Amino acid sequence: MNRYPRAALLRTLVISVICVAGLLVLLHTADRPGPGDFDEVRETGNRAFMEEGIVTWNGQKYRKKPALTVILLGGIDRTAPGNGARTSSYRNGGQADFLLLLAIDHGNRQIHQLQIDRDTIAEVTVLGVYGNETGTQPLQVCLAHSFGARPEENAKYTVRAVRSLLDGLEIDDYWMADYSVVSDVTDLLDGVAVTIPEDMTAVRPEWYEGHTITLDGEEAETFVRTRQLVGNGTNEERMNRQAVFMRAMIDRLKQRLADDPSFAAGLLSLAGKKACTSLSEQKLLEELGESRAYEVLPVDRLPGRHVIAENGFAEFYCEEGSAAAWIMEHLYSVR
Please, what's the largest Cα pairwise distance for the chain? Predict the structure, then answer.
């Protein structure tokens, strides 16, 4: 018998949903990756994240928190410009337009969140026309998911790119879902009410700043994905809207669960069909069961700068040392 009662699992859905706009419910049985899948670690000046977990940073020794689980969550856009033009089966995985690192600190009973800008330049593994790895290139981190012939391979290369960006930080598991789940889950919730944070009348006439409206599924997907027609068209603005939607989604989910606890069954079934994950059902139940009462901390982002490259695409460069600073502050403690 499952050692975690159904009611406890329902409560823990709230934690999962807040991480990715209420979509990533993290319930999909899959085999865990093999031990060789995530074994790449980028060297740093002091081998910053060694296996033993002890590092020296700014003259102080730190130890990695012992009871820590790190999960990479992703929202995949399979209709991004250029995807349809690719003919190789090894380059058609779609782009990871939404990336969120979820760090569950069981020792301090906290959940840390780091949202990664999809335009962040990272070392991305590139495949040749026959699916062979040809090395890495500095590309937008979202493109890592486009490489690979199967969803598990797409996820593996995304994890690898994020690890390179975060100084080789070990990532325990991943959960990747198609963006279309936004629409499906919103409709399942009978809509999500949001207050429009900026002028979006170029998208919908009624989407003016400050107007509170209830989004249906199609509108919700447009709200979290639209980029070029709003403001200066940066992904940073879109990330702000995604945060607005996350807060509204979690409020709506809490309400639905309070009104009808059985509602979670349909949500679990729907989200599971849209996901590719390394999380086994048992591992998921353990993580959710232990973390149901933890404090969910605000979403963090790495500081940096946006530039427009010669090819016309936006690129984001993290401030030097900012990844290590976030990791040391949240995932390590003074020895």
Answer: 59
| Contact between residue 225 and residue 238 where contact means Cβ atoms under 8 Å apart | yes
Q: Residue 196 in contact with residue 210, Cβ under 8 Å?
A: yes
Which pTM was predicted? 0.75
Q: Give domain limits for the chain.
A: 6-179+273-334
pLDDT in tens, the chain (335 residues): 333 333 333 333 433 443 333 333 332 222 333 333 433 333 333 334 444 668 888 888 999 898 899 999 998 887 654 444 444 567 788 899 889 999 999 999 999 999 999 999 999 999 988 889 999 999 999 999 999 989 999 999 999 999 999 999 999 999 898 878 888 889 989 999 999 999 999 999 999 999 999 999 999 989 988 887 887 777 778 888 888 888 888 788 878 877 887 776 677 677 667 788 888 766 765 666 666 678 888 889 999 999 988 888 889 999 999 999 999 999 999 87
Contact 22, 251 (CB under 8 A): no
In CATH terms, 6-179+273-334 corresponds, of 2.160.20.10, 3.30.360.10, 3.30.420.590, 1.10.510.10, to 3.30.420.590
